[in-house]
Amino acid sequence: MSQQRIGVLVMSYGTPESLDQVEAYYTHIRRGRPPTSEQLKDLTDRYEAIVGGFFPLRENTNKQVQAFEDRLNADHPGYSFVCYQGLKHASPYVEDGVEQMVKDGITQAVGIVLAPHYSSMSVGGYIKRAQDKADELGLSIQFVQSYHLHPKLLLALSERVNESLQRFVGTPRNNVRVVFTAHSLPEKILEIGDPYPEQLLETARAVAAQTSVDNWQFGWQSAGRTGVPWLGPDILDILHTVVKDDQVENVLVCPIGFVSDHLEVLYDLDIEAQKVARELGIHLERTASLNTDPLYMETLSDVVFALCERK
Asked: Which interval of the chain is the signal sequence (predicted)?
């Protein structure tokens, strides 16, 4: 009996692979409008600040996709899963991934975004692009919308919080303020009842409960530099506030909205937020990213296979 062959479109934001690709990448993000020289220098400087310009997101994503495919096939031997990448702002684009599946003879597919929480502006956008291309090519595809309360995801995050709290030697756990963060989005999502903020709070509450952390709050980070207001408070503002109002000296950031080491983690938190923390006299730590954590890979495997079973 032949194995059932299923294509899995693994979608994520994408990143340039080298410094000379930053301008084209930034132009794509800006929908074809090239960045100003100041904007380009700012982004390039941020990448250069990360270990001399090493681009971790692409390598991390490649490793995640391979580990995910391995996990799927190990967990479900009656199937043959083949993973394809589809990136939002870099090659292979979302549409390229769908097209490659069709070229390879895939007739049944599942799409999933490497982001546990749904927003119409993020995950919803990926799904629309993939669905439009699949419809054009006649490919049957279904999508995982979110997986923000999967038990294995919560366990992986909880393990990281517990491990990181041990770094505050001599400080009682409840004297450490835990700040759960995610990528900010424009405030206009609140007007349409977008589930993104509430799903993030649900994850934060669940992890706080599993780790018996009472001293926590939620914050945002990495807001875009546009003329519209974005969700806040920002992590940098939180650092100022907790020192001034609560006399907090120890902060643990748990970026639950991110699953990989990339610019928003390695620069926005490890460089920018750490700089502010040092200036304020705060001991700041960050939980390790999920990357290819087996529990995260099992989470992805579970939610994709659940869709296949319902087919």
From this structure: none
* CATH class name, domain 151-286: alpha beta
46 is in an annotated binding site: yes
E strand or H helix that includes residue 84: strand 79-87
The answer on whether 264 is annotated among ligand-binding residues is: yes
- Topology (CATH level 3) of domain 4-147+292-310: Rossmann fold (3.40.50)
Which amino acid would we find at residue 243?
Answer: V
Confirm whether residue 47 is marked as ligand binding.
yes
- Say if residue 183 carries a ligand binding annotation: yes
* H helix or E strand, kind and range, residue 8: strand 4-12
Q: Which two tokens stand for residue 206?
A: 């669940």
- Residue 1: pLDDT band (50, 70, 90) is very low
Give Cβ neighbours of residue 157 (< 8 Å, ≥ 6 apart): 203, 207, 254, 256, 287, 290
pLDDT tens, position by position, 100-109: 999 999 999 9
Residues carrying CATH 3.40.50.1400, the chain: 4-147+292-310, 151-286
Q: Find the helix or strand (DSSP H, E) in which 208 lies.
A: helix 196-210
| pLDDT for 282 beyond 50 | yes
CB atoms within 10 A of CB 73: 16
Is 278's pLDDT higher than 90?
A: yes
* Number of residues written out for the chain: 311
CB neighbour class for 96 (10 Å; exposed up to 12, middle 13-18, buried from 19) = middle
